[in-house]
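TICKET: design request
STATUS: open
ATTACHED STRUCTURE:
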């Protein structure tokens, strides 16, 4: 998969920043996802469409989300694409557990029309699958997702 390097959101995340985010979210990010963000933080893919396994729909990625130290201080106003900013906006629409501390469904890319590609940790806290989260179908404590790939690596291969 190729990313348009002119669309990256800088600075690129460090190992220390990943460690803090994983602690806050109470999950372990896949190594291939962390490696991807270290090179492509917030970038737009050149090939941006993929088919979802579960529902057969075609989706278009606007851009991948990023991880920033301080999204409010991002010079080019692209801090709105930070994963934590997105989590704050979607809050309890990404879980069915009102007592959850951390994250279960982690948005990683913005799709056309307001949906998101997410890492889904609900079944396995160390090996998430990739799903599409539907903003129109999801309600408070009622997330609606569609399985897309069994891993981040498999998802990336859909964009090649």
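STATUS: resolved
RESOLUTION: sequence designed for all positions
ATTACHED SEQUENCE:
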């Amino acid at each position: 998969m190729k990313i348009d390097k002119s669309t990256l959101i800088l600075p690129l995340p460090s190992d220390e920043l990943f460690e803090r985010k994983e602690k806050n979210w109470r999950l372990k990010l896949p190594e291939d996802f962390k490696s991807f963000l270290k090179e492509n933080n917030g970038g737009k893919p050149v090939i941006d469409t993929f088919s979802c396994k579960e529902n057969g729909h075609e989706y278009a990625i606007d851009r991948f989300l990023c991880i920033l130290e301080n999204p409010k201080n991002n010079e080019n106003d692209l801090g709105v694409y930070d994963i934590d900013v997105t989590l704050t906006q979607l809050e309890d629409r990404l879980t069915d557990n009102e007592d959850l501390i951390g994250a279960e469904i982690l948005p990683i890319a913005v799709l056309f029309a307001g949906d998101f590609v997410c890492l889904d940790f609900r079944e396995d806290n160390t090996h998430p699958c990739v799903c599409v989260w539907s903003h129109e179908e999801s309600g408070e404590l009622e997330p609606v997702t569609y399985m897309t790939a069994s891993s981040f690596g498999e998802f990336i291969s859909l964009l090649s």
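CLOSING REMARK: The chain has a mean pLDDT of 93. The radius of gyration is 14 Å.
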